[in-house]
Amino acid sequence: FDPAREDREFVILSSDYAVAVFGDRLAREVSAQAPGVSITFRQVPASITDDPAAQLATVDGLLMPHGIIGGLPAVELFRDRWLCLVAEDNPEVGDSITLSQLGALPWAAYQRAFDASVTRQLSMLGIEPRVQVSVDSFQLLPALVAGTRRVAMIHALLARRLGLGPGSGLRLLDCPF
To answer: Which distant-in-sequence residues (6+ apart) come within 8 Å of 43 by Cβ?
Structure first.
């Protein structure tokens, strides 16, 4: 493989979150080292955990957190942490959020609630999120939380990219676990 001479498209499965926080760096690096190469990012299908081999047979790569699919070679590209996202005017949540509140409040969730590693972690703590709205984009979660009682889990790097926090109508809180 000679990147400078390569002329092809690479297809990578990724969430919108991973593209938002890492895709630009990857695209810049590829452009610099392999100007004839193009990258197509495709949304990770919800069925990826059902039959990963079939899904991965048609693509060149996968940007996904460790632990969702096992048995594949992996490289850690970056680290992030989860935050709780609530509306600034949510009267039920103060300066912090509790595990019992996470169990009682309605949720806006990424795809199926169990697709996110953080909700699997909550499940091990005995908390089953009551998902009111589900979307296939992490970037849509803030709009689905603003002005509601809903809570969502969002990555800190994405929250920073989206300008969430004071003045956005939303509050970012440390997770209580």
So the answer is: 13, 14, 15, 16, 136
Report phi then psi at 128, rounded to 5: -105, 110
Q: Which ranges of the chain have pLDDT less than 70?
A: 112-118
For the sheet containing 38-43, what is the strand order? Answer: 38-43, 9-14, 61-63
pLDDT of 69: 79
Residues 159, 149 contacting (CB under 8 angstroms):
no
The per-residue pLDDT for 148 is 98
Question: ∠ CA(116), CA(82), CA(111), 5° rounding?
Answer: 25
**Torsion sign, CA atoms 128, 131, 136, 142:** negative
Q: Count Cα neighbours of 26 within 13 Å in the Cβ-side half-sphere.
A: 20
Q: Contact at 8 Å (CB) between 159 and 165?
A: yes
φ, ψ at 33 (rounded to 5°): -95, -25
